[in-house]
Structure formats: C-alpha cells, structure tokens
C-alpha cells in the first residue's frame, strides 16, 4: 500500500487539504495527516475557519518513508509549512531520494521556491504567487503541472484541487486507478 504524508497547519486551504486527503483515501492510499503547528496542536483552524484534526504532529513523521509528501496551500498555512524544520527535513529526503512531492496554491512559492528547490523545475502555483517561482519553468496556464524528471506535482488553487488530487493518484497508482476513483465521483473530464 502506498503511503502519503499531507502536511497541514493553521491557515491551510481546507478545500485543498480535504480534497487531497479524501481522493487519496478513495484510492486506498494510506494517508497520514500531520500538523506542522509549532504548538504541536493536532487541531488546526483552516483558512475559512474549518477545523481539521491531524493524525499526528510532523515531528513524529521524520523517520518514516513516504511515497509522496503533499503540501496544501492557503495562508498563513504555507508559511507554517515553510518554517517547520521537521517538514523541511522530510522534503529534503524526498528530493534527495527522487521521491514524489507535491504542492498546490501558495505552497510551491512559499515553501518550495523559498527553499531554493525549483531551479529548472516545471511548476505552477496560485496566479498571484507565480512571479515568486524563482528559477522555475513556470506554466501560468496549466491547472496541474507534473514534472516527471523532478518527481514534483504542482497546481494553482482551490478550483484545481480535484484535478491535482487525481494527478497524485495517477502518479502513485496509474491512470486506470485515477479513472476508477474519478468515475463514481461523477467527474466526466478525468
């Protein structure tokens, strides 16, 4: 079974976080939702006031292996993700081991670009943050960008969260599995 880490914090975009978690679980992926709050609180308040209960705190995840690490966007959630030393270590390990990692909305710019991880990489993010993707090959139009060579998936925002989540399923489990998850959700374009 594939194992995925989804990092969240106060101010994470709830539509993105819940969509990612839900779609991956529909695909029978083992999803670990980790809070990146410095207070170690597992209950986070998302960007629109929705409460989300994490499974664990990120510090308990550092010695685990993941097939994919995913960062929802939202502010100041993405800032908390950027500032999380345990998450930074996990992401560095993913990158060094050529393992999949993904970010949507503000997170490609606020987390990945600020760590200097996007040089030469194909990426996108929330439109008003696209100029902050320093060194990246920015696709301003694509809803989802999959960079196979760098094992990175990025997306633009809440409206692209479902396509993003299905792209995650596809890279982990194949196109047929992504379609089998999309079909009962009545997604005709998948």
Give structural attributes.
190 residues, alpha/beta, Rossmann fold, seven-stranded mixed beta sheet, two-stranded antiparallel sheet, 11 strands, 32% helix, 22% strand, globular
What does this structure look like?
With 190 residues, the chain is an alpha/beta fold. It has a single domain, classed as 3-Layer(aba) Sandwich (Rossmann fold). 32% of the residues lie in helices and 22% in strands. The protein contains six helices and eleven strands. A seven-stranded mixed β-sheet has the order 5-2-1-6-7-11-10, with helices on both faces. It has a two-stranded antiparallel sheet with strand order 3-4. Strands 8-9 form a two-stranded parallel sheet. Strand 1, helix 1 (14-26) and strand 2 (30-35) form a beta-alpha-beta unit. Helix 5 packs across helix 6. It is globular, with a radius of gyration of 15 Å.
Tally of domains: 1
Annotation field: number of helices: 6
CATH class placement: Alpha Beta
Q: Biggest sheet: strands, sense, closure? A: 7 strands, mixed
Beginning-to-end CA distance, first to last residue: 23 Å
Q: Spell out the helices and strands N to C.
A: EHEEEEEHHEHEEEEHH
The CATH homologous superfamily: Class I glutamine amidotransferase (GATase) domain
How much of the polypeptide forms β-strand, as a percent range? 15-25%
In a few lines, what is going on in this structure?
This protein is an alpha/beta fold and 190 residues long.
Element layout with pairings:
Layout: E1 3-8, H1 14-26, E2 30-35, E3 43-45, E4 51-53, E5 56-57, E6 68-71, H2 77-83, H3 85-96, E7 100-104, H4 107-113, E8 122-123, E9 137-138, E10 144-147, E11 152-155, H5 161-173, H6 175-182
Parallel strand pairs: 1-2, 1-6, 2-5, 6-7, 7-11, 8-9
Antiparallel strand pairs: 3-4, 10-11
Helix pairs in contact: 1-5, 2-4, 5-6
């Amino acid at each position: 079974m594939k194992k995925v880490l989804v990092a969240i914090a106060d101010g994470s975009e709830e539509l993105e976080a819940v969509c990612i978690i839900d779609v991956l679980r529909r695909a029978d992926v083992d999803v670990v939702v980790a809070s990146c709050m410095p207070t170690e609180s597992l209950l986070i308040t998302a960007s629109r006031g929705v409460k989300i209960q994490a499974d664990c705190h990120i510090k308990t995840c550092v010695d685990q292996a993941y097939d994919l690490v995913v960062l929802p966007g939202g502010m100041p959630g993405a800032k908390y993700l950027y500032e999380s030393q345990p998450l930074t270590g996990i992401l560095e390990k993913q990158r060094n081991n050529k393992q999949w990692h993904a970010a949507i909305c503000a997170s490609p710019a606020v987390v990945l670009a600020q760590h200097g991880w996007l040089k030469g990489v194909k990426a996108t993010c929330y439109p008003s943050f696209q100029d902050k993707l320093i060194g990246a090959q920015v696709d301003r139009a694509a809803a989802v960008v999959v960079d196979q060579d760098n094992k990175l998936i990025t997306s633009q925002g809440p409206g692209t969260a479902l396509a993003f989540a299905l792209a995650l399923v596809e890279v982990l489990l194949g196109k047929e599995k992504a379609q089998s998850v999309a079909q009962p959700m009545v997604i005709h374009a998948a």
